[in-house]
Each structure stands twice: as structure tokens, then as C-alpha cells.
Amino acid sequence: MKIITRATAIKNLKKYIGQDLRELAKKHGITTFETGKQNKGWKGLVLERLAGLETNVSKAPNGLTYELKSVAFRYVKDELVPKETMAITMINPAELKAHSFFESHCWAKLKTIVFCAVKWNGKNSEAAELLKVASLDFAEDDELIKEIKADYDFIRNKLIAKGFGALTGADGKWIQARTKGPGHGSISRAFYARTALVKKIFEIAS
């Protein structure tokens, strides 16, 4: 099996910037809305093919997995901005208490994600252009990483002091810990990248 490194996946994806994922989906035999029912994961499947990966085979040589994330962007007053926040990883209270930021699942996920900005043209739209490919390739002492760590530390300390139920989406400048799951009564929580963080990553990326 051919191993596609994260760097190679990014290089492969960048070749398709400006192209329409809907048309590429048809080319690769991936259904989107053609059956009358939306295939919610179609963008992810297309991105995996474009990166050179077989579905669910995203192993890096060192055994770490990396993940391709499709992030919807739209124009607001001539400025391209993220349409919504982006889920990073589910929160396990025991693990959050036990692990510092650089030992955490949150950091492990963030540093391995390949962010793919896709133009949002409305629900079930006929086009979805790949706008940009980026990743969080910064050193641990980078100012942005320090600020993300500060968010994590605040959320972790709040959990230790006040309990899991005290975590709210209002906490954190770049990342937040908010409920995830169906309905307003959901008690599970996940780390999310705020739209400001997603925008920042794409602005910094070359």
C-alpha cells in the first residue's frame, strides 16, 4: 500500500485549488445530491481521493493519523469568512483533567488536521470550489499556540474547580468547549475551533 504523508496530501490537494468539488465528485463516482438524498460526507470523500488516500486509510509513516477537514467559507461584505465553527475532538472529562495541553487529544488533533476551505454557495448548491488548503504548522512557542493553550488551560481549570457542567461555549478566545449532540439537553461536550481561529489559520497559511 502506498503511504501518503501529510505533506504529500497537502501538496496533492493544492493542485485542485479553484476547481469544483461537485464536478470532481462525479468524476470519482461519489454521489452528492444526485439520488435525491444528500450524502453528507461527500466532500470528505472527494478530498481523500484528491489527496491520494484510499477511504479511511490516512496513515502517516510514523503511525499517526491525520484528518482532512472540509471547512465552509462564504462571502460577507466582499470578505471570505468561515460559515461556522469546526469540531476538533470530543471531551472526556477524566482525560481533560489528567492531561496538559501538549499531552491532550485536542492538541494532537489540531496539529494533524489538514484544513480545506470550500466555497459555500447555499444548501444543495451546484458548485463547491476548493479555495485553500492549510494546516496548523506552528511551533509550540508560537504566539497563536500559546493563546490556544491558554484557552485549554482555562477550560481545564474550570472543569477541575466547578465540574463538567460548568463548561460553556463562552469560554476561550480561539477554542471553546460546548455541547455536542442532538437537542438542547445534550450533556456531551467537544472542543471546537472558533470561526476566528479557522480564519486565522487560512490567513497565515501560504
Can you offer a commentary on this structure?
The structure is a single chain. This protein is an alpha+beta fold and 206 residues long. The chain has a single domain, classed as 3-Layer(aba) Sandwich (ECO RV Endonuclease, Chain A), CATH 3.40.600. The chain is built from 7 helices and 7 strands; from the N terminus they run αααβββααββαββα. The chain has helices at 6-14, 21-27, 42-51, 93-98, 105-110, 143-162, 195-204; strands spanning 67-76, 79-82, 86-90, 113-119, 130-135, 175-179, 189-193. The protein has a 4-stranded mixed β-sheet, with helices on both faces. A 3-stranded antiparallel β-sheet has the order 3-7-6. β1 (67-76) and β2 form a beta hairpin. α2 packs across α3 (42-51). The radius of gyration is 18 Å and the shape is globular.
Share of residues in strands: 15-25%
Distance between the termini: 31 Å
Biggest sheet character: 4 strands, mixed
CATH topology: ECO RV Endonuclease, Chain A
Question: CATH first level: which class?
Answer: Alpha Beta
- Spatial strand order of the main sheet: 2-1-4-5
Extended strand count:
7
For the record, what is the CATH homologous superfamily label? DNA mismatch repair MutH/Restriction endonuclease, type II
Low-confidence stretches: 57-64
Q: Residue-averaged pLDDT, rounded?
A: 85
Number of domains: 1
In CATH, the architecture is 3-Layer(aba) Sandwich
Please identify the structural class as seen in this structure. Answer: alpha+beta
